[in-house]
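Quick note —
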Amino acid sequence: MRECGNYKTTYRDDMKLFGTTGAKIKAIIIILTILALPLFASSYWVGLLTLCAIASVGAIGLNILTGLTGQISIGVGAFLGVGGYTSAILTSTAGISFWVALPIAGIVTALIGGLFGIPSLRLKGLYLAIATLAAQVIILFVISRWDGLTGGTAGMVLSRPTIGQFSLSSNTGYYYLCVIILLLTVLYATNLIRSRTGRAFLAVRDRDIAAQIMGINLFKYKVMAFAISSFFVGIAGALLAHYTMIVSPELYSFHVSIEYLAMILIGGLGSIFGSILGAVFITLLPVGLSSLIDVMAGIMPDLYQLFSAFKDFVFGAVIILFLIFEPGGLAHIWLNIKKYFRLWPFSY
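Predicted structure written out below.
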């Protein structure tokens, strides 16, 4: 069923999550396809899709802060580390169940994120970015030096979660766990945008002075944005830690923060669907480049080292090209494709 001709006459209709029957059917088909992927994919690809799901949770969290509220953060890697280390300490050291440690990891990360979000009331743009960079440095310094709690530079070893006697040790079992959490994250973020809080976030992003004049408490909503964003980033960090079964300060470097910023820039700022597209793109980009390099090396083996050095170049070039030619990201490209086929063959 096409969306054309569906007019909303009540506020309740406007607030519906799915505006048409066709939208409901498409959502069901997408969910069923995602759940059926492990039945047809190899264990290697299921593992990659699991990493995509985990990255999508973190990217959605970052997009709530940067895309919806306009607060720049380049300390995502450290907040991933807070979530991962919190879960590791609770499960490995304290002996607490993963199912209890996971939400606690999110809450602890939210509290720390809210704490570092306090300067956002006075700082904007580059100054706020530097403040979040300071958070990255401080958190990683504490993780590296607090040997008695975090294991220092040696890190900590974790195990996969269990449900009764069943262990999620296989890639397929852990994939379903991450997908379920991703679906819950998408549901929450979608409803957040449509709520009063989400509209306040958008007002703060677009015109913070005007929003304050209208009665929006800037301090409250900016700190809230940092806390909500950090909660989902902490959840992603805990999921990633139990997937790799190891946490170490090197895993949460500044490069990781840049990767997550690239996810929301390439996917589309302020778009939940774009966050997922960007996370999948950035996660699978090294895999695609490695496959291409192997093919090129088979043709010209003497240039293998040169091809390998081009990975970082391609990563940076992709970000620059998107910023120049498609600042709306993959979400905007997908929207244009939908519009084209919605009007086809009468596109004029």
